[in-house]
Specification:
Number of helices: 13
Structural class: alpha+beta
Order of helices and strands: HEEEEHEEHHEEEEHHHHEHHEEEEEHEHH
Strand content: 15-25%
Distance between the termini: 44 Å
Largest sheet: 7 strands, antiparallel
CATH topology of the largest domain: Transferase(Phosphotransferase), domain 1
CATH superfamily of the largest domain: Transferase(Phosphotransferase) domain 1
Radius of gyration: 24 Å
Helix content: 25-40%
Shape: globular
Number of domains: 3
Mean pLDDT: 86
Low-confidence stretches: 1-7, 9-15, 185-192
CATH class of the largest domain: Mainly Alpha
């Protein structure tokens, strides 16, 4: 099946009502023979199969075949396959399984991917209990790096849980099952349960079915809950875990501290996991890149610098700044609901330093900001509405220049999730952002 071939709805409608069994043959670009069932989820089953095609470029002998359940209606089955394929083909990362082959024709619509003999994190936790702390840190690093790649491709997973984390022969972890994923801030036609995730690992906005609130921080909650389960050995989707799950929106965290069940967990691990489990998504980190940098710093694998972030302006001061905006676009945007996050920096304070990971974007509202690279001044920004630092925020990469306040500076400060929401809810601002980036590229 070619990458551009459309899904055969008639074939889906005629799909057999039974799962394949030992010896059944599955055909796509290559041919596979079913060996045994590995597991079954809500919308699909996974089988071990042997690839019997021998030619250059063919998959390895053992593969995992994911077959969508044929008892779904045609439109749902088709939509799920499209979602998973579009997500997997958009992301290339060593911690996200690659797609070897797929087909929507024949009796069993399938996706062929690598086979992980050790199974899922769910299997490991069920057989051996909680992971050792070193393995928990590796889990955090592997999954956060996978999420960085997914989010940079504008894909939200929305169902992160131990059963969707595969364990390789070397003890590494990979994120799989993008069957209910969707484009960030893009809703491509409703499915009955799209984005609601799995009980116990859902972010509050998923439990309350608020799809307009889904963003990168929704996946961070799922990551936090998955790592929490790995730390404690508690299956959060089990009935006995019900009492652990916070249902009251006024509670700060969705789960108790890790240290309540794992006395000797390090303070750094407990703090990082709990930071992702805030009920209020505004309090969670803004991106997986922030989590990844925290993990690397904790493991001694990279620096973590923290710039001065200024002080949030008091409401009367923020109102005065908004009233003084000259540009009609910015005045309209900030007058209509985006007043939070206006920060004041004093003379000499750094908004960001060259080489650091600060993950914040600044929209200059008033004042002068000096841009320095390798000790030389590149520019002094004074224009109202200028974006500063957005490339580092969007990519998760280190800052390429230093930004320092000259005199008092007022700026709207946003993390990656806030920036994404800010731009997508204000399309004209998105155009300004593109122009700002193009001007800077042309200048350099």
């Amino acid at each position: 099946m070619s990458e551009h071939e459309t899904i055969d709805a008639d074939a889906l409608r005629d799909a057999t009502s039974r799962d394949p069994v030992f010896g059944d043959e599955i055909k796509g670009r290559y041919t596979y023979t079913i060996v045994r069932k590995l597991g079954r989820g809500g919308f699909s089953s996974v089988f071990l199969a042997q690839c019997t095609t021998v030619k250059p470029g063919a998959p390895p002998p053992n593969v995992a075949i994911k077959i969508l359940k044929p008892d779904q209606d045609t439109s749902t089955l088709e939509a799920r396959m499209k979602r998973e394929l579009s997500s997997l083909l958009a992301i290339e990362h060593p911690r996200i399984p690659r797609v070897y082959d797929w087909s929507a024709s024949g009796p069993w619509p399938f996706v062929a991917m690598p086979y992980y003999p050790r199974g899922s994190l769910h299997d490991v936790l069920a057989s051996t209990g909680a992971l050792e702390e070193d393995d928990v840190w590796r889990l955090l690093k592997d999954l956060s790096s996978a999420l960085v790649a997914a989010h940079q491709a504008s894909v939200l997973h929305l169902d992160i849980k131990p059963a969707n984390v595969l364990v390789d022969a070397d003890g590494g972890f990979s994120l799989t099952d993008f069957g209910i994923s969707q484009g960030a801030r893009m809703y491509r036609g409703p499915l009955p349960t799209i984005g609601t995730g799995t009980r116990g690992y859902q972010a509050p906005e998923q439990r309350w079915v608020q799809p307009d609130q889904f963003d990168m921080r929704t996946d961070l909650y799922g990551l936090g809950a998955t790592v929490w389960a790995a730390c404690t050995g508690i299956n959060l989707s089990s009935k006995k875990a019900t009492d652990l799950l916070a249902s009251d929106a006024e509670q700060t965290f969705g789960l108790p501290p890790v240290t309540k069940f794992r006395q000797y967990a390090s303070a750094e691990l407990n703090q990082l996991v709990m930071s992702m489990l805030y009920q209020d998504q505004r309090l969670r980190p803004g991106s997986a890149a922030e989590i990844l940098r925290e993990v690397e710093a904790a493991l001694g694998q990279g620096p973590l610098y923290r710039s001065a972030t200024g002080v949030e302006a008091e409401e009367p001061e923020a109102e005065e700044i908004i009233d003084g905006l000259v540009d009609p676009l910015w005045h309209h945007v900030f007058r209509n609901g985006s007043r939070r996050g206006i920060v004041v920096f004093q003379h000499g304070e750094y908004l960001a330093r060259e080489g650091e990971f600060s993950h914040l974007t600044y929209v200059l509202l008033r004042g002068r900001v000096r841009i320095v690279k390798n000790g030389a001044t590149l520019a002094t920004e004074t224009r109202e509405g200028t974006f500063l630092g957005e490339v580092g925020t969007l990519t998760g990469q280190a800052r390429t220049a230093t930004m320092q306040a000259e005199g008092k500076v007022y700026a709207r400060v946003m993390n990656a999730s806030q920036l994404e929401r800010f731009v997508t809810t204000n399309p004209a601002v998105g155009v300004r952002l593109i122009r700002s980036m193009a001007e800077r590229l042309n200048r350099t």
